[in-house]
Each structure stands twice: as C-alpha cells, then as structure tokens.
Design brief:
Blueprint: H1 6-23, E1 27-34, E2 39-46, E3 62-63, H2 68-81, H3 91-94, H4 109-113, H5 127-134, H6 148-164, H7 180-193, H8 199-211, H9 221-225, E4 232-236, E5 239-243, E6 260-261, H10 263-274, H11 288-294, E7 299-302, E8 305-307, E9 312-316, E10 319-328, E11 331-338, E12 343-349, H12 356-367, H13 386-392, E13 394-397, E14 403-408, E15 414-418, E16 421-423, E17 425-429, E18 432-436, E19 441-448, E20 454-459, E21 462-465
Antiparallel strand pairs: 1-2, 1-12, 3-6, 4-5, 7-8, 8-9, 9-10, 10-11, 11-12, 13-14, 14-15, 15-16, 17-18, 18-19, 19-20, 20-21
Helix pairs in contact: 1-12, 2-7, 6-7, 7-8
Length: 467
C-alpha cells in the first residue's frame, strides 16, 4: 500500500497552508484512503470555529454543495436499474409541470445528468424566498427537507422557468453548460418515483443507511444545531460573516447542492465507488455496469476534462481520476477517486471560494506517484484575425450573475474584463483563449452558429450567451 515520504507530506502540508492563507480559509479537513477503507493519510488544518478555536475532526458537519449532484445521479441510476424509469425517458413523462414547449427535441433524463439540456445558466430560485412567499418556516416537526408542499412549489417554479426559455444554448445532448435547475428536476423525479415522500427520505433509505452514513443529511436544522458543526465563513459585500445558516443561497430543491456531511461519512461514500457499488455488509447500491456508465466521459469541459453523470473525469497518466467539487456560502468541498489507483480523497472546508480541488489534486497526484503539482501546458500566442476579434467583442452575461466583456485592445489583441475586472487572457487556439490562474487553467471557448458567428462562449463549466 502506497505511503509518502515525510518530505512529500511536509511539502503537501506547506502547500495546503499557503493555499488556505491566500483564500482566508478557516478550517479544512483532508483524508486519503484505500479501497479497503484503510486511511492512508488524514489531517485537519485550522479550526471549525475561529472565535472559540474549536478544532475540526472527522465527524464535523460541513456543507458539501455540488458534491450532492453525485448522490442525485446515483439515486436516478438506482431507479433506472429497477426499471422504474429509463434514462431515455423525456423529462415531461415524469414531471408534467415541464412541458418542453420551446425546444424542438425532448430533454431526456440522461441529458440532465450531464448538464446537456441545452440551457444557459439561470438565476437561482432560492429556498428562503419560496418559503417566505409560502409563509412557512423550517421546524423540527416539519422540516423543509421533507415538506411535500415546498417540493411541489419548487418543481413548479423550476419547470416553468425552464419552459419559459426561448433562447437555448443548443439542442438537448449537444453541449454541456452547468445547470443547477437540471439536478433540481432530477431530484424531484427521485421524490416522485422513489417510493418515499421526499428526496431526503429516499437518500436516507437507499444510500445513507446502507453505507452507514449516520451524519449525512439534507436537513438544514440538524447540522446548524449540532455541537460539532462547522461555522460557515462567507465574504459578502467585502465583509466576512460567520454563521450556521445552511439555507444561505440554498436552491429550492436539494439535488444540486443541499447535502451536509462529514469526512468520515464521505470516506464511506467514496469507498463504495472504489468497490463497484458494494456496501460494508456486502450488499450493492448499483451494478458495476451502471457505475462504469456513471463515470464515463459524456461532455467536454476543458482539454482533458469531461463531465460524466453527476461526476467529472480526467486522467493522470493511464489512470482515470473521477471527482466533483462544490461551492456555496461557507462551503468549499471536493471528492475524488481513482479506480486504477484504488484510492479516494475527500477535502472539506468551511470557507467560501477556497480552491480545495487543488488540495485534492495535489495529494491524489502524490499517492499515484506523480509530482505534487501538474506541469502546465505552454502555448504560443495565437493571432486572432481582425474579423474574428470584431465578432467576439461584446458582453457575455450569465443568468447566475457573472459576466465578462471582450474588447479589441487596438493592438491586434483582445482585452477581457471579468465582472468588471481586467484579467490576463491569452489567445492559444483558433477558437480558444486561456486564463492562467494560480492553481488551474480556465479556458475561454467560443461557440459558433451555422453561419460561423460567435453567439456564446464557455468560461469554465458555464456557457455565457453573448448579449
């Protein structure tokens, strides 16, 4: 079983502390483990609460944000395995509120699993806003996570908003753009077809209990009231806030980012993937075939990286690495595993916008026998012709609130402003630019219509329509 030299561990820990300092991260937990469940490395940095200095441990509650999408995908595949649904079913077959009225082809379950429903990013429909309009509150005897009336109102709003779209990225299945609404719809299919009264109860009965994940929940109250919960640190209007408000920026439906968990529980979850869907008692959550399908590359994200079904995938040498991250107010999370390398990694942090994927990638690389930091590709500057520069110039605005602007700089180049701030973007291919960040590269990829004109651009995992 692979072990690391003390020098490697020190270098990794120095790297992690430096990253945390740069991102103002308060507490971080990291675990590396073998497919047999044996912990190879585990460490806790910082604290779960800055005021008291209370430490992080393996049972500390953290939000996991979009890591929740893999749970939703797993639940959908369980229903497909039982023949309750088919992945080729149109969404409208199971969610009648969704009529598909403005698209020429049906959006199917398999499309939403890999963010390829054809939708540009949309504003988040917030749980707190919907609950306030309904006049309801989250109480121990009637929690938001299990309320049927809230779920019904949530799916009505999400489905209607998707149906209202008249400008689409592409035909369903053609291109990927990250879509929380799609996973909201998927979790409602689980609620309707899973034989339980809520998405939360389905997860509890069919995933959490079989894996012994007793400290994983969709509840907002349970982690907020637990004595061993992470305080959430969020930068809002240039001011840091600290609270236990797990409803902050929470989507009205929970399949895209509503789960809270711990390091110890997520070890069990990732170990299940490393053991072809088997539970500790020898049962099986999903067939080997469907688990392979779950991690199969489906949609291009950036060079060498693809979205699968509720997971992402890339390669280190000849070994596949499967992963997913998450970000919400007070939450930065990442899970990863390598089937060939037989190891898994979990990283959890209680501070927003911390690049924990870099921590996960660094320790994964070391345990798989690679240098801790990847070698970045080097590119010559590509000379975009004047006609192309004129075509791409303009504003690209996401419904999620982000935007960027491209301007001809007057010197045969392009100036890029992201959310009003100029960033260094380098043209590297005919239709792609590169933004080199400290821990990862982000590609700017232009998308053209049938006449060859740019109508949108992918920046990271989102495609921004050109206004």
């Amino acid at each position: 079983m692979k072990t690391l030299a003390q020098k490697q561990l020190h270098e990794f820990e120095d790297f992690t502390r430096d990253l945390m300092e740069g991102a103002h991260a308060r507490g971080l937990a990291v675990s590396v483990f073998h497919r047999d469940g044996h912990v190879l490395y585990e460490n806790f940095f910082g604290c779960r609460d800055e005021a008291s200095g209370a430490p992080v441990n393996e049972d500390t509650f953290f939000g996991i944000a979009s890591v929740s999408k893999s749970f939703t995908a797993l639940a959908i595949l369980q229903l497909a395995q039982q023949g309750i649904i088919s992945l080729d079913d149109p969404i409208s077959m199971h969610v009648p509120e969704f009529t598909n009225k403005n698209q020429s082809e049906p959006v199917r379950i398999r499309h939403l699993l890999c963010h390829s429903g054809g939708y540009f990013p949309l504003p988040r429909i917030l749980l707190s806003d919907v609950a306030e309009k309904m006049g309801i509150t989250d109480t121990p005897d009637n929690e938001f996570a299990v309320r049927e009336d809230l779920a019904e109102e949530g799916i009505r709003l999400v489905a209607e908003r998707l149906d209202e779209q008249t400008r689409h990225l592409c035909l369903p299945g053609e291109l990927m753009s990250y879509c929380n609404d799609g996973f909201a719809v998927l979790c409602d299919i689980v609620r309707r077809k899973g034989g339980c009264r809520s998405f939360a109860e389905y997860l509890e009965e069919h995933i959490l209990k079989p894996l012994g994940m007793s400290r994983t929940t969709v509840s907002f109250l349970r982690p907020a009231q637990d004595p061993n919960t992470a305080t959430l640190y969020t930068l809002e209007n240039d001011r840091w806030t600290a609270d236990h408000n797990y409803q902050n920026d929470a989507f009205v439906l929970h399949g895209g980012g509503g789960i809270k968990s711990t390091l110890a529980d997520l070890r069990k979850y990732v170990t299940m993937y490393l053991n072809d869907g088997r539970t500790p008692e020898g049962g099986r959550l999903l067939s080997t075939h469907l688990l392979r399908e779950m991690r199969k590359p489906r949609q291009y994200v950036k060079p060498g990286e693809y979205y699968a079904w509720g997971l992402e995938t890339s390669w280190l040498g000849d070994m596949q690495c499967v992963y997913h991250g998450g970000s919400l107010p007070g939450v930065s999370s990442n899970i990863a595993f390598s089937p060939e390398g037989e190891i898994g990694v979990v990283v959890l942090c209680n501070t927003m916008d911390v690049p924990v994927y870099a921590v996960s990638d660094a320790i994964m690389r070391l345990f798989l026998g690679f240098p801790m930091l990847p070698e970045r590709p080097q590119h010559e500057t590509y000379n975009w012709p004047a006609e192309f520069r004129a075509d791409i110039a303009g504003d690209y605005i996401s419904g999620e609130g982000d935007s960027f602007r491209l301007e001809d700089d007057g010197h045969d180049g392009i100036r890029m402003l992201l959310n009003g701030k100029e960033i260094d973007m380098k043209p590297v291919f005919r239709d792609q630019g590169l933004v080199r960040k400290k821990y990862a590269d982000v590609y700017l990829q232009f998308i053209k219509d049938e006449d060859g004109h740019v109508y949108a651009a992918r920046y990271g995992s989102r495609v921004f329509p050109k206004s």
